[in-house]
């Protein structure tokens, strides 16, 4: 009866506009009382501090800051110009440019929403002017934005690493091949659709102009290479790499001539807001995780799903379904905070690798943001570009289908995710 009362109370607060982090924390504390575990609340502050006082999680606000600075410092135009020089001459070239720009963005911001908004502002109008349908231009922009949090640096992977006490460096390295695999699948889909719908090819630029654009974009493109090389070869920790990324982003802004005090202040303000909201959520989840451990909820969940016959590959399919649906309705950090402590320990107990699961779950949640009816990336692209939401959603269906195929391959071929971490010595 107490549990039902807490559930009703939580739903009422949520419908009333309560902050979800506050709701999780309040519901968890009430659950301690309902389960006659109130005496254990004395240790809750210690559990909260233990959950957020991690060296690896310090990299999160630094990577957010680096992305905010670079997004404001004129990096977008340099990356788009380079992508144009490399891919525009192909049939359906602007679609390829869209995807390649997202790959470049992935190594800078690691944010699907920032990618979707920036590319919608620049490439969607260019594609429409070149003869692409507005729906197709919006669809490929939304579909390619999912690459952002898969290829490192990735704020979502840092969040997952904090929740599961898993190496962030290993997660970063594990995301490289899956992210590139996703990009190749999107390139192939765009090439097929370009021939089917006779999409135009762009202007073939002279080699000298392509080289000039490459040199101009070097300050932006070299940063992810330096960061990843440092992490892979053990020269830097993710936190040190994040600090270097901030320094490099400031230098890049100076090179492009857009760095000023106002830009820095805006970047710091936005970073403080985003980081604060994530840390509050982590604190609330720490209380929930503490109670889940006391009540042995992960063990009970594992026994329940095994009792229903969800073992091995069936459990992986169940995880995919749960996280894909969660990605459609919830913000990604919230979905991770709510579901990872419950579902991932059961998967690990069945023999799954936590790094492999982390990559698969990130891809799942990213596909949720391009899945109707509430796909967040679709909403962002529609809002920024002015293209109707359902038109974009319909045109994105072929890309989403291919991405689901990629997800299933990643799920059942863990070596794609684990090859580079094993090669780099992060796992045996």
Automatic annotation (TrEMBL):
Its main location: membrane. Keywords: Cell inner membrane, Cell membrane, Membrane, Transmembrane, Transmembrane helix, Transport. It is found in: Cell inner membrane. One of its GO terms (molecular function) is transmembrane transporter activity. The keyword Transcription does not apply. PANTHER family: SIALIC ACID TRAP TRANSPORTER PERMEASE PROTEIN SIAT-RELATED, TRAP TRANSPORTER LARGE PERMEASE PROTEIN. NCBIfam families: dctM (TIGR00786). The complex comprises the extracytoplasmic solute receptor protein and the two transmembrane proteins. This is TRAP transporter large permease protein.
């Amino acid at each position: 009866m107490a549990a039902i009362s807490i559930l009703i109370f939580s739903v009422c607060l949520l419908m009333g506009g309560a902050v979800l982090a506050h709701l999780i924390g309040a519901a968890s504390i009430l659950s301690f009382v309902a389960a006659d575990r109130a005496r254990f609340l004395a240790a809750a502050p210690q559990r909260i501090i233990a959950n957020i006082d991690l060296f690896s999680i310090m990299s999160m606000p630094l990577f957010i800051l680096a992305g905010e600075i670079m997004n404001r410092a004129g990096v977008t135009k340099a990356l788009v110009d380079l992508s144009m020089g490399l891919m525009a001459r192909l049939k359906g070239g602007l679609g390829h440019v869209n995807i390649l720009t997202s790959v470049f963005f992935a190594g800078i911001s690691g944010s699907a929403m920032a990618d979707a908004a920036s590319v919608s502002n620049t490439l969607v109008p260019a594609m429409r002017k070149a003869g692409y349908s507005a729906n197709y231009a919006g669809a490929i922009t939304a579909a390619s934005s999912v690459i952002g949090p898969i290829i490192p640096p990735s704020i979502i992977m840092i969040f997952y690493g904090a929740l599961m006490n898993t190496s962030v460096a290993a997660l970063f390295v594990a995301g490289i091949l899956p992210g590139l695999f996703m990009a190749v699948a999107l390139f192939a889909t765009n090439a097929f659709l370009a021939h089917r719908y006779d999409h135009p090819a762009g202007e073939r630029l002279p080699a000298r102009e392509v080289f000039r654009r490459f040199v101009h974009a070097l300050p932006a493109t070299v940063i992810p290479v330096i960061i990843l090389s440092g992490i892979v070869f053990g020269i830097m920790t993710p936190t040190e790499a994040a600090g270097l990324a901030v320094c490099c982003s400031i230098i890049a802004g100076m090179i492009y001539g857009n760095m000023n005090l106002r830009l820095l202040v805006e970047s710091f303000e936005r970073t403080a807001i985003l980081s604060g909201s994530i840390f509050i959520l982590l604190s609330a989840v720490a209380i929930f995780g503490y109670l889940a451990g006391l009540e042995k909820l992960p063990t009970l969940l594992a026994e329940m799903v095994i009792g229903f016959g969800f073992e091995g590959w069936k459990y992986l399919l169940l995880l995919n379904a749960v996280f894909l649906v969660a990605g459609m309705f919830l913000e990604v950090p919230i979905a991770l905070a709510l579901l990872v402590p419950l579902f991932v320990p059961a998967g690990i107990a069945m023999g799954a690798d936590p790094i492999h699961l982390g990559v698969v779950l990130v891809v799942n949640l990213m596909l949720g943001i391009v899945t109707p009816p509430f796909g967040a990336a679709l909403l962002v692209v529609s809002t920024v570009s002015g293209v109707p939401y359902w038109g974009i959603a319909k045109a994105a269906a072929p890309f989403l289908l291919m991405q689901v195929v990629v997800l299933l391959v990643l799920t059942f071929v863990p070596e794609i995710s684990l090859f580079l971490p094993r090669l780099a010595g992060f796992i045996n």
